[in-house]
Amino acid sequence: MMITPCELPEQAAILSDVTPEMAFADRGYNGVDIDGVQIWNSGQRRGVTRGLKAMIKRRSAIEPTIGHMKSDGKLDRNWLKGALRDAMHAILCGAGHHLRMIWRKLRLFYTPILDNRW
């Protein structure tokens, strides 16, 4: 089932019990107008303050992480059935991604220490 851009704020309100006031989107959302939601596109120049620019850049930083989780972290195929299990699958994939990052940092920290000991 495909969700249209106009349904996304409604879906976010259902999932988080908070109605969004701003949405940061890519250029595919050019021309989309949703009542009560300000849509900020990447590459937009008019009316963008320093804080909004940082939020737009933050959204751009999340995109590669989601791509890595889809290709390396088994987020691409969900074997579980139902909406609750879909959410559990996404949370577990995110937790696995963070654990892999922590293990990588620990390996980089402890490898020089252990190499000097031998």
Automatic annotation (TrEMBL):
Domain of life: Bacteria
Protein name: IS5 family transposase
